[in-house]
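Hi W., the zinc ion complex you wanted:
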Amino acid sequence: MTESDLTAGSEVDSYCLKCKDMTNHMVIAMTDGKIAKAQCNVCGGRHKYRAAKPSKSTKAKSSTASRAAAGVTLKEKKATAAFEALLKGRDGSESKPYAMTAIFNKNEIINHPTFGLGVVTSIIPANKIEVTFKDGVKILICVLPVSEIPEPSKAKKKKIRKAVKEAVA
Ligand SMILES: [Zn+2]
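Structure:
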């Protein structure tokens, strides 16, 4: 069966962008012996007839484009805004590479291999930090206890006092 044997109402296989697959279609309109429009029997979408799957490169390109066109979710937008507000006036050059063994402080800019730049928005004792990235807030683990306000420990102070006492005596 060639394309010219088809008429409106004929069944034909066409690529459907919605189903992202070759699906059964019904011919809706013919122009000059060629299928002008087809309706997908799976999703009911009406579109141009596509005899074959778009090539991989085109597909990858279009899926990236459609994702960009679809836009980021509201949650992501909010996260990006929060991230940008936190980073305002800072260029990220002071960023610290993220490592589980590093100690982080609040408001410190970290550089994560997967999530990119992030700002430490909260310290969660004893070994977690909340970081705001462009894509959202993530909780990261630190192996070492997170640093609180740097303050000499009581034991250390006692030791110093004792040392001073001994020096005086
Ligand atoms: Zn479809």
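Helices lie at 56-70, 74-87, 154-168.

W.
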